[in-house]
Amino acid sequence: MKANEEMVACATSHDEVDWHAIDWHKANQNVRRLQARIVKATQEGRWGKVKALQRLLTRSFSGKALAVRRVTENQGKNTPGVDGEIWDTPTKKAGAVPSLRQRGYRPFPLRRMYIPKSSDPKKLRPLGIPAMKDRAMQALYLLALDPIAETTADPNSYGFRKGRSTADASEQCFKLLCRRNSSEWILEGDIKSCYDRISHEWLLAHIPMDKAILKKWLKAGFIEKHIYHATDEGTPQGGIISPVLANMTLDGLESELRKQFPKNRKAQVNFDRYADDFIVTGKTREVLEEEVLPIVENFLSPRGLELSKEKTCITHIEDGFDFLGQNVRKYHGKLIIKPATKNVKAFLEKARCTIETNATTSAGNLIARLNPVIQGWANYHCHACSKQTYTDVDSAIFEKLWNWAGRRHRNKGQRWIKAKYFKSVGCRNWVFSGITRKPDGSNRAIHLRPASYTPIKRHIKVRGEANPYDPEWETYFEHRLGVKMEMNLNGRKRLLNLWKSQNGLCPVCGQKITEITGWHNHHIIWRSKGGSDTAENQVLLHPNCHSKVHCQKLPVVKPRPAKGAPKA
Ligand SMILES: [Zn+2]
Ligand SMILES: [Zn+2]
Of 209, 322, 361, 517, which has fewest CB within 10 angstroms of its CB? Predict the structure, then answer.
């Protein structure tokens, strides 16, 4: 470990770090190795060993460097906390690494902000922004906590976990309800403001991490309009570690139910959870009301939580219910999951907003903004019965675009407007089209990509016991990532081929490139030195690895796909 640590840093002196000289490949290896050992010790129930390994990880240079990298690459990297600081240069990032010390650590209060709710953009929800350093400390401790959380998690918990998604939760829901003899009653659980209410005493007694540090985060308080407020309950919302704390609080509910209702018993009680959204299925209304509900309430109460009386309800499958933006309902005995009306409305509202706020921009720019919105929404629902909804949504958007075009050219006829904006492309007519400028200054035609272009594909649920930190499961998750990227990059063939041709790996650090890490398209022979724009000369790199390459003028060799690798 010691020798490795020094190799990672290549530091000139003890506390001076050169950001771009960090060997990320080694850093990742060191952390992954420790995480795999944490998983093993957890599985064996050797908590003393777990603690020692966590201590090693949270004090390692590798762990600290990766923590800084994580918080300087994610979405909020340019949003400062109360101290107003952001780490946007290699020098600042390098300086941050040795500053992640345990001794004398005192987190700042969170900066309270309000952002629009995703379910209803007109409503606001509070968000606490930790200072940069506190985010990095959370990321560091998360590296040491998440392997435990993944090992002890409920098998049917799918929210905010590595390698799991809403698609898995939705598929589990389908599996529980689809058969003729499946349970017919569903308890929809709604926990009253879950994140804000979790008991600090419970967290401090049960979360396996450095208690002193956890206590400091929980008690950090927040600042709103220059006034300090103390926090007595709840997890620090907006913190990187919060979703994992919340998951760990709710883990155990499934096994509690399983204890009372073993599999294959008549009551057919089953469980499915995404973050704090969960359902329990049962054979009869009475089982759910009289037996399951008390178990859930008894489980929640020591954690400081309770079910919302108004929003928790028991529904029959033929009346249907909404779960994760989709409607689940049996029609004449056949289970159909499709986009929920509320969800479709929210999406169309977003599309309408995009179109209206771009009343004066070019069609090309509007399409460049609309396409990802449509694609993202369609991808979310592409495992459900969404065909008809896709078609409906497309015609609603068409109508809005037709009006958009009409408003721009009030004195032109319909025929003229059609000729200008709605072209024939291949065998498709009425394709909303425009022009965008490529980075090299030349023009390119761009077309609206309708939702109905997204193929409907059955999703294969993640295996309940699969653990992303356990080397045993490595190839399993690699394969799933390939399938996922294939879907997400659907319609971006070139990018997908590039990703596949390098095995999904970044040649600089050897780690996977995913939607979460993001990527830059790098020219192996730089464009400024006459490199071409062909796929052969391009390679995908992590954003941070990309800037390292340019900063140090490193040569990049395209990784070659492993022979006989399974097709993604
Ligand atoms: Zn990389
Ligand atoms: Zn480049």
Answer: 361
SS3 state at 188? strand
**Could you give the count of Cα atoms lying within 13 Å of 255 in the half-sphere of its Cβ?**
8
Tell how far the Cα of 505 is from the centroid of ligand 1, in angstroms: 8
What is the 479 CA–ligand 1 centroid distance (Å)?
19
- Write down the residue that tokens 């009653």 correspond to: 185
> How far, in Å, from the CA of 87 to the mean position of ligand 2?
22
Nearest 5°: phi and psi at 224?
-130, 125
Token pair for residue 453?
């272009």
CA 240 to ligand 2 centroid distance, Å:
30
Concatenated DSSP letters of 49-92: HHHHHHHHHHT-HHHHHHHHHHHHHSGGGG---TT-----SHHH
Distance 464 CA to ligand 1 centre (A): 29
Query: Which amino acid does the sequence have at 68?
Result: V
Query: 545 CA distance to ligand 1 centroid (A)?
Result: 5
pLDDT tens for the chain, 568 residues: list them.
455 565 565 444 445 678 888 888 899 999 999 999 999 999 999 999 999 999 999 999 999 999 999 999 887 888 888 888 999 989 999 999 999 999 889 999 888 888 877 666 677 877 888 999 999 999 999 999 999 999 999 999 999 998 899 999 999 999 999 988 888 999 999 888 777 788 889 999 999 999 999 999 888 877 777 777 777 766 666 688 989 999 999 999 999 999 988 877 777 899 999 988 999 999 999 999 999 999 999 999 999 999 988 888 999 999 999 999 999 999 998 999 999 999 999 999 999 999 998 888 899 999 999 999 999 999 999 999 999 999 999 999 999 999 999 988 988 888 999 998 998 888 888 999 999 887 777 888 899 999 998 888 888 899 988 999 998 898 898 888 888 888 777 767 888 888 988 988 999 888 889 888 888 889 888 877 777 778 888 899 998 899 889 888 888 888 776 554 444 3
The whole-model pTM stands at 0.85
Give the ligand at the shortest distance from the Cα of 524.
Answer: 2
CA of 232 relative to ligand 2 center, distance in Å: 48
Q: How far is the CA of 506 from the centre of ligand 1 (A)?
A: 5
- Strand order in 428-437's β-sheet? 422-425, 428-437, 443-447
Ligand 1: centre distance to CA 454 (Å) = 30
Q: Could you tell me the distance, in angstroms and rounded to a whole number, from the CA of residue 337 to the centre of ligand 2?
A: 44
What span, in angstroms and rounded, lies between the C-alpha atoms of 472 and 513? 21
Bridge partners of 322?
A: 327
Residue 557 alpha carbon to ligand 2 centre in Å: 13
510 Cα–ligand 1 center, Å? 6
